[in-house]
TrEMBL record:
Residues 36-132 form the Large ribosomal subunit protein mL46 N-terminal domain. This is Large ribosomal subunit protein mL46. Its main location: mitochondrion. Residues 147-263 form the Nudix hydrolase domain. Keywords: Mitochondrion, Ribonucleoprotein, Ribosomal protein, Transit peptide. InterPro entries: NUDIX_hydrolase-like_dom_sf, NUDIX_hydrolase_dom, Ribosomal_mL46, Ribosomal_mL46_N, Ribosomal_mL46_NUDIX. Belongs to the mitochondrion-specific ribosomal protein mL46 family. It is found in: Mitochondrion. Pfam families: MRP-L46, NUDIX.
Length: 267
C-alpha cells in the first residue's frame, strides 16, 4: 500500500514538472510582437483628357462600322431637301413650274457649301503639346491620352525618393482623414481632388534601416485613390519637388518592390 502511494505521488510530481517545462518552452518560443508605424498614402490621378489614338486595326474596324451605319441609315432632312430642290430645279429649267425667287434664296447646296467652308477653317488642338516636346514632367498638359500619377520627393532615412504622397496615421483621425491631411502636407491646398471611398485600394510595408530604428521596426502604408478635379490648378508650392508620370515612367522611377505593390491598383 505504501509502495503504491509513493508511486502515485512520484507520477503526479513528474507530470507537474513536465507541464511546467512545457509552459516555459512555449513562453520561450513565443515570438515578440513587432511594432509598426501606420501610414496613409495617396494615389492622385489626372485622368486622360482626350481619347487614345486608334491602332490601325481599330481605325479599320471603325471605318467598316461607319460604312455599315451609313448604308443602313435613313436620309437626313438635309439630304431630302437637296433631292427636292434638285427636282424643282429640273422642272424649273424645263419650264414646267414657276417658283418665287424668295423660295430658292438659300438652297440646301448653299448651306452645305457654307458648312464646308466653315469646317475648312477649323483647326483641332494638337495632340502633342509643348509640355510633351519639352518633356516637362511637372506639367498637367502632357500625355493627354494617358493617366498621370502624382509623385512627390520624400526623405526616407538618409536618402530621398519619389513616392506617392504619404503621411503618418494619427489615432485621432481615420485613415481616410490621414490620407487627406498627408496630401495637403505634401503639396498644399492647390490640388482639388475627389476620393473614391473610405477603403484603401492597396498596401505596402517596409522595414526601417537597423541604424535608425527606435520603437517601430518599419512602416505599413495603406493607399487611397483619388482623381484630380476638372479645372484644378497644379502644385504651386515651388519648394515641393513633384512629377506627373504615366505607368511606363512610374516603372522606371519607383523602386522595387514598391512599384510592384503600386502596380496592383493602377488602372
Amino acid at each position: 500500500m505504501s509502495f503504491m502511494i509513493t508511486k502515485s505521488v512520484l507520477g503526479t510530481g513528474r507530470a507537474i514538472l513536465m507541464r511546467h517545462a512545457s509552459t516555459k518552452a512555449t513562453a520561450a518560443s513565443a515570438p515578440v510582437k513587432e511594432k509598426w508605424d501606420i501610414y496613409a498614402g495617396v494615389l492622385v490621378e489626372r485622368l486622360p483628357v482626350i481619347t487614345k489614338t486608334m491602332a490601325p486595326i481599330e481605325a479599320k474596324f471603325k471605318s467598316m462600322l461607319d460604312q455599315i451605319e451609313f448604308e443602313n441609315s435613313l436620309k437626313s432632312n438635309h439630304e431630302v431637301r437637296k433631292e427636292v430642290e434638285k427636282r424643282q430645279a429640273e422642272l424649273l429649267k424645263a419650264g414646267k413650274i414657276d417658283l418665287d425667287s424668295e423660295t430658292l434664296k438659300q438652297t440646301a447646296q448653299d448651306l452645305e457649301d457654307a458648312y464646308n467652308d466653315e469646317f475648312s477653317k477649323f483647326k483641332p488642338a494638337p495632340r502633342i503639346t509643348e509640355a510633351d516636346k519639352k518633356n516637362d514632367v511637372k506639367s498637367l498638359s502632357r500625355k493627354l491620352e494617358e493617366t498621370l500619377v502624382l509623385l512627390t520627393e520624400q526623405k526616407l532615412g538618409d536618402k530621398s525618393y519619389f513616392l506617392l504622397p504619404q503621411g503618418k496615421y494619427s489615432p485621432s483621425e481615420s485613415l481616410r482623414q490621414t490620407a487627406e491631411r498627408a496630401l495637403k502636407e505634401n503639396v498644399g491646398d492647390g490640388l482639388k481632388v475627389t476620393f473614391y471611398g473610405n477603403a484603401p485600394v492597396g498596401f505596402y510595408k517596409y522595414k526601417y534601416p537597423s541604424t535608425t530604428r527606435q520603437e517601430a521596426v518599419g512602416a505599413k502604408v495603406f493607399f487611397f485613390r483619388c482623381t484630380l478635379n476638372p479645372g484644378s490648378q497644379n502644385v504651386t508650392d515651388k519648394k515641393v519637388k513633384f512629377q506627373w508620370l504615366d505607368q511606363s515612367e512610374l516603372e522606371k522611377t519607383l523602386k522595387e518592390p514598391y512599384y510592384h505593390s503600386v502596380a496592383q491598383f493602377l488602372v
